[in-house]
Write a structure and sequence with these properties.
Strand content of chain A: under 5%
Chains: A mainly alpha (about 80), B mainly alpha (about 220), C mainly alpha (about 230)
Strand content of chain B: under 5%
Oligomer: heterotrimer
Helix content of chain B: over 70%
Number of strands of chain B: 0
Distance between the termini of chain B: 32 Å
Shape of chain B: globular
Number of helices of chain A: 2
Structural class of chain B: mainly alpha
Chain lengths: ~80, ~220, ~230
């Protein structure tokens, strides 16, 4: 399970981190201002980056530990059968 | 990964992408300018942090009523995830306050309440670490979790009275700031995305806790 | 109903008798109360700051820290003597145990507070302001809420690995809104110029007490069983 989901999770994190600055830098209806660099942009980006990494990183950590635990459980249950 | 979890993961991812799309479409806010967009993650994350604490309190109550371990597992999982969320609130708050007010922190109503919630979460988790016996840990955590949860609205009210007497810069708009429809829609999408992510994390962590307990039982059975 | 009050009375009597002999809870509260006042005198020089700002906080912080130590002593005494488990018979008794324990802790706390208060009134020249009935209301409500939550949390701490250290970690976050209410209320009472907003603080403190005394009453039994 882990092998399948980890790439997906990493993809989501990467996607989030790339889309976010592009998305955030947009300024609909601002006319000429739309493509100029925004003030305080890096503060905004930092917030989003922290959240993305924290949450999806936590998902990755839990999913990773899960795999180890499942293997251990299987081993113990087989031992019990013997 | 179970089907439900896959669905939740997909919804979570889609929700986040939708949020980004919406953020690019909405116009900038007039008073605070560009950086105001932090609002659309700061508020949903805060909402989930409070929700998660409620889930912990409620499941603690259910444990006391039934002595069924599954409730304790959910309570503990929710607390773990909740502390992550509330920490994010405490990180994004200053990141928002610094460019706007020039200061990292202020003792306004929301930040103070959030910090106290963080302390309550931490106390709960420290308690759990300090008890080794499973049933005793569940029992004590349920009592403490419940009392701590009852405290949250009172914390808010106490800080509110203080705030009305000594106004301080408010991070996140005043109490009565209405929202234009496109802002509201973005906020709701944000709340949806982060709540779904919470649900996913809760399920994953809970399943893991169940396996951890099972493994511990097997080790004990071995002797 | 009769047995309920009998249990309350029994717990109260037992605690008072033990304390009369040893006097260590009371000594702890008074000693640490005065010491904390000293720390705050050094921390915030009362000669330089507006007195109304410094004294209420100093007073309540001293009560708080002294009280935590007193609660811990009281709870550990039960664990050592192991008398309290002998009394656990019926579910109705458990609420009575909570009430009895809370009342005895309250008694010791109030006596200790009175002594510290006399000292503070003298050192900071409170000039009778601490004798105002509003202040006594705050004193009673604040101490009651603090002891109400503290009694149950002190027992929880006894059952953990960290023991006494756990009590402030659990108690302080939960007690913060009550602390805010009584300190702000005390500021208003001690400051001769203003009397606005006292009502809402007193209401908040009273509401807090009602909620948490009931919660403690219902939940104490769960902590006792083991």
């Amino acid at each position: 399970m882990f092998r399948k989901t980890m790439p997906i999770l990493l993809f989501l994190i990467a996607l989030g981190l790339t889309i976010a600055p592009v998305a955030l830098a947009q300024d609909y209806g601002a006319g000429d201002e739309a493509w100029k660099p925004k003030e305080n942009f890096w503060w905004l980006f930092a917030s989003y980056a922290v959240i993305w990494v924290a949450l999806f990183g936590y998902v990755a950590r839990v999913a990773g530990k899960q795999q180890t635990l499942e293997r251990e459980l299987k081993r113990l249950e087989q031992d019990q059968v013997k | 990964m179970t089907t439900t979890n896959r669905i939740l993961l997909a919804l979570s991812g889609l929700g986040m992408i939708a949020l980004c799309v919406m953020l690019s479409l909405i116009p900038r806010e007039s008073a605070q300018g560009f950086v105001q967009k932090i609002f659309y993650v700061h508020v949903p994350v805060a909402w989930v942090a409070f929700l998660a604490f409620g889930v912990t309190g409620y499941n603690g109550l259910r444990y006391l009523m039934t002595r069924d371990m599954k409730f304790d597992r959910v309570a503990a999982a929710s607390a773990e995830i909740g502390v992550v969320y509330i920490s994010l609130v405490l990180i994004t708050g200053p990141l928002w306050a610094k460019p706007i007010w020039g200061i990292y922190w202020t003792w306004d109503l929301r930040l103070t309440t959030s910090f106290i919630l963080w302390l309550l979460y931490l106390a709960y988790l420290i308690l759990r670490r300090s008890v080794d016996d499973r049933e005793r840990r569940a029992q004590l955590s349920a009592v403490v979790g419940l009392i701590s949860f009852l405290d949250v609205p009172i914390v808010y009210m106490a800080n509110r009275v203080k705030a009305s007497q000594h106004p301080a810069p408010v991070v996140g708009g005043g109490e009565n700031s209405g929202l234009a429809p496109e802002f509201l829609a973005t906020l709701l999408i944000g709340i949806f995305a982060f709540t779904v992510t919470y649900a996913l994390l809760l399920r994953l962590r809970n399943q893991q806790a169940r396996i951890e307990d099972r493994i511990e039982d097997l080790y004990l059975a071995r002797g | 109903m009769n047995s309920f009050w009998r249990v309350v009375g029994a717990v109260l009597a037992r605690d008072v008798r033990a304390e009369w002999r040893r006097k260590d809870i009371f000594t702890t509260i008074v000693m640490f109360g005065l010491l904390t006042v000293m720390v705050f005198v050094f921390a915030f020089d009362p000669a330089r700051h507006e007195r109304a700002d410094v004294v209420p906080g100093t007073l309540w912080a001293s009560f708080l820290f002294a009280g935590i130590l007193g609660l811990n002593r009281s709870a550990s005494r039960d664990s050592q003597d192991d008398q309290i488990s002998g009394v656990v018979t019926s579910p109705a008794d458990r609420g009575a145990l909570y009430l009895g324990k809370t009342l005895s802790n309250l008694l010791f706390m109030v006596i200790g507070e009175a002594i510290v208060l006399v000292a503070v009134a003298f050192f900071f020249d409170l000039d009778g302001r601490h004798l105002a009935p509003e202040f006594f209301a705050l004193l009673v409500l604040g101490t009651l809420g603090f002891i109400g939550v503290g009694t149950i949390f002190a027992l929880v701490s006894q059952k953990t690995r960290m023991q006494e250290v756990m009590t402030p970690i659990l108690l302080l976050p939960v007690i913060l809104p009550l602390l805010r209410a009584v300190i702000e209320g005390t500021k208003i009472v001690f400051d001769p110029t203003g009397n606005d907003g006292l009502g809402s603080w007193i209401q908040l403190a009273a509401g807090y007490d009602v909620i948490f005394l009931i919660a403690g009453f219902l939940l104490y039994g769960f902590v006792l069983e083991d």
